[in-house]
């Protein structure tokens, strides 16, 4: 599983796997393999979200000056 895959593509892959699992035409072994693939896509999507969250910037107005600070700094303060 490539980490360069977009968040949206990971969601598409997960949706496709869910559809395959829900249609009931897979054997138990195939279902388990599909489930494992879905979990990898979910982990990759989570990593993409975590990276994006770390990059978010908060713009706040302070004494008529606009300053930019890391979004995550406020939550840890």
Structure description:
The chain is of the alpha+beta class and 77 residues long. The protein is built from three helices and two strands; from the N terminus they run H-H-E-E-H. It has helices at 7-22, 28-55, 71-76; strands at residues 57-62, 65-70. It has a two-stranded antiparallel ribbon with strand order 1-2. Helix 1 (7-22) runs antiparallel to helix 2 (28-55). The model has no long low-confidence stretch (mean pLDDT 81).
Which helices and strands, and how do they pair?
Elements: H1 7-22, H2 28-55, E1 57-62, E2 65-70, H3 71-76
Antiparallel strand pairs: 1-2
Helix pairs in contact: 1-2
Question: Could you describe the largest sheet, including whether it forms a barrel?
Answer: 2 strands, antiparallel
Gross geometry: rod-shaped
What sequence of helices (H) and strands (E) makes up the elements? HHEEH
Number of strands: 2
Overall average pLDDT? 81
End-to-end Cα distance, whole Å, is 36 Å
Beta-strand content? 15-25%
Unreliable residue runs: none
- Class derived from helix and strand content: alpha+beta
State the share of residues found in helices, binned by percent. Answer: 55-70%
Number of helices: 3
Which strand order does the major sheet show? 1-2
Radius of gyration: 19 Å
Oligomeric status = single chain
């Amino acid at each position: 599983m490539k980490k360069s895959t977009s968040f949206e593509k990971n969601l598409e892959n997960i949706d496709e796997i869910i559809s395959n699992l829900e249609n009931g035409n897979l054997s138990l072994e195939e279902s388990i393999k599909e489930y494992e693939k879905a979990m990898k896509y979910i982990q990759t999507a989570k990593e993409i979200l975590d990276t994006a969250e770390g990059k978010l910037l908060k713009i706040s107005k302070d004494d008529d000056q606009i300053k930019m600070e890391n979004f995550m700094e406020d939550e840890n303060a």
